[in-house]
């Protein structure tokens, strides 16, 4: 982030700091770092938010149960959980024996961190950072909408 962008961010949002300034404040042990939860889309029955802490087999079983009931499941992963979300979707596709399709969408999520001062002499600080996310739709296509290729007959 350039110093011009940092100054711009500070003007528009009050007490925002660049990432380097933010790390210096954390290292000084005068602040407590509080990471806000990321904004989530409205949760549907078919949404599964993947984390690295939850047992993979439990997440896989939950997704399979939703896929069996709803014919589609949306798997969401953020940051380090992106790889796990992809692996989960691929496992579902493999266990579907060709009847399951995958559609993916990637995005960048804005995350906000707060620094709360240890003593009353300091001002609270805020920092913005960005993280990768993935949204995977795992679904069973409608059999009537599947395009079938014409069979090729050989001559001879």
TrEMBL record:
Instruction: Give the UniProt entry's GO cellular component terms.
Output: nucleolar ribonuclease P complex; ribonuclease MRP complex
UniProt GO molecular function: nucleic acid binding
Subcellular localization, per the record?
Answer: Cytoplasmic granule; Nucleus, Nucleolus
What is the top-level taxon of the source organism? Eukaryota
Q: Which InterPro entries match?
A: Alba-like_dom_sf, Pop7/Rpp20
Q: Name one GO biological process term.
A: tRNA 5'-leader removal
Where primarily located? cytoplasm
Family stated for the protein in its record: Belongs to the histone-like Alba family.
Record note on quaternary structure: Component of nuclear RNase P and RNase MRP complexes. RNase P consists of a catalytic RNA moiety and 10 different protein chains; POP1, POP4, POP5, POP7, RPP14, RPP21, RPP25, RPP30, RPP38 and RPP40. Within the RNase P complex, POP1, POP7 and RPP25 form the 'finger' subcomplex, POP5, RPP14, RPP40 and homodimeric RPP30 form the 'palm' subcomplex, and RPP21, POP4 and RPP38 form the 'wrist' subcomplex. All subunits of the RNase P complex interact with the catalytic RNA. Several subunits of RNase P are also part of the RNase MRP complex.
Q: What is this protein called?
A: Ribonuclease P protein subunit p20
């Amino acid at each position: 982030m350039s110093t011009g962008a940092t100054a711009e961010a500070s003007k528009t949002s009050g007490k925002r700091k660049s990432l380097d300034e933010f790390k210096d404040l954390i290292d000084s042990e005068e602040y407590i770092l509080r990471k806000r939860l990321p904004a989530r889309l409205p949760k549907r029955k078919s949404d599964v938010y993947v984390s690295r802490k939850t047992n993979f087999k439990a997440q896989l079983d939950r997704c399979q149960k939703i896929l069996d009931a709803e014919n589609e499941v949306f798997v969401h992963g953020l940051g380090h959980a992106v790889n796990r979300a992809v692996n989960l979707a691929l496992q579902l596709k493999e266990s579907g024996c060709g009847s399951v399709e995958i559609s993916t969408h990637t995005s960048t999520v804005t995350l906000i961190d707060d620094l709360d001062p240890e003593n009353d002499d300091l001002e609270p600080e805020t920092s913005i950072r960005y993280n990768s996310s993935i949204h995977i739709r795992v679904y069973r296509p409608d059999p009537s909408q599947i395009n079938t290729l014409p069979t090729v007959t050989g001559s001879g």
